[in-house]
Amino acid sequence: KMTDGNTSKIVMWLDDTVIVKKQLDKQAYFFIADALTGEPLQKVNLEFFGYRQEPTKLEQLIGRHYNVITTGFAEFSDENGQVLPAPKDFQQNFQWLIMATTQPEPATGSGQGQGGRLAYLGFTGIWYGNYRETEYNQTKVFSITDRPVYRPGQPMRFKTWVRHARYDQTNTSDFAKQSFAVWITDPKGQKILEKTYTADNYGGFDGEFPIPADATLGTYSITLPGRGHGASFRVEEYKKPEFEVTVEAPTEPVMLGERITATIVAKYFFGAPVAKGKMKYKILRSDYSANWYPTGIWDWFYGPGYWWFACDYPWYPGWKDWGCRRPHLWWWPVSRNPPEIVAEAE
């Protein structure tokens, strides 16, 4: 309350319970649990309140005139804290506020039970995907090679199976006795083999490809055009090593600016040292950062840092004093400076 001024009122929800929503195939799933322990809660009343706005005929003429339509229903969670409402209960184009409540504890109760709980979720939309049919009917290509790496001039043998992703069905294939085109491409993306094979009763076939003596080194791909990628293999020049080179460095972390000693050792596999060997070394230094972030109260369910959804505000005055940079997502590319050459000698 400001002196001789207005009073600001804020509603605060103290949640000891959490509602988790997940979209299933043609259905919505809700899980009710204790927000601290993650234990499922049974017989929790889950109320669904939905609303939407419909423009009136007057709105179409002058604007800002709507009819607000509301609906609602309620369900109880089962012994596993789960609620699976019938799809017919969710009308289309509605936004939903979902509340989970239990009756208050009796005055003589210990206060440690499930009474008086509260959680809310929303406003949120409810939709239904067709996940199962898309994944269940997709075509899968499985290929294996007799080895992962080959030398130029060696034969490469492979085995391939084609079938639908209906793993709960009997071990048969809708692709039995069908013909399949197989492409093998080199590391440059050039097609070096195109051949047709006939599958057996299980949708499988095998083949062989003689790798040319002047083959390009790198990763090759086996592809069934129109079906998918099968497998990859590498072609490399290989020579059995005659000796081993190791670097003996400190095992404990080193402070910035501290001097260390590293020893480079070359030994034959039978134990004798490599005498009068020509050695070249290069020492590189790379920048490093270790992000730290506080623990969220629901990390037990979503994983560390799940709640860190807001952007950083380094442009805001003083943010660097009280702010904390959010962690990078594992799939988000991070630009780093190139390594710096510290020392190089031969």
Fold and architecture overview:
- The protein is mainly beta and 346 residues long.
- The protein has helices at 57-62, 131-136, 299-302, 319-322; strands at 17-24, 27-34, 45-55, 66-76, 82-83, 95-101, 118-125, 139-145, 149-150, 155-164, 179-185, 191-198, 204-210, 218-224, 228-235, 243-248, 263-268, 281-285, 340-345.
- It has a five-stranded mixed sheet, with no helix packed on it.
- β1 and β2 form a beta hairpin.
- The protein is extended, with a radius of gyration of 32 Å.
- The mean pLDDT is 85.
Would you spell out the secondary-structure blueprint of this structure?
Blueprint (H helix, E strand, L loop, with lengths): L16 E8 L2 E8 L10 E11 L1 H6 L3 E11 L5 E2 L11 E7 L16 E8 L5 H6 L2 E7 L3 E2 L4 E10 L14 E7 L5 E8 L5 E7 L7 E7 L3 E8 L7 E6 L14 E6 L12 E5 L13 H4 L16 H4 L17 E6 L1
Summarize the structure.
It is built from 4 helices and 19 strands.
What is the helix/strand order?
A: EEEHEEEEHEEEEEEEEEEEHHE
**What integer is the average pLDDT?**
85
Choose one word for the global shape. extended
Ends distance? 75 Å
Describe the strand arrangement of the main beta sheet, using strand numbers.
9-15-14-11-12
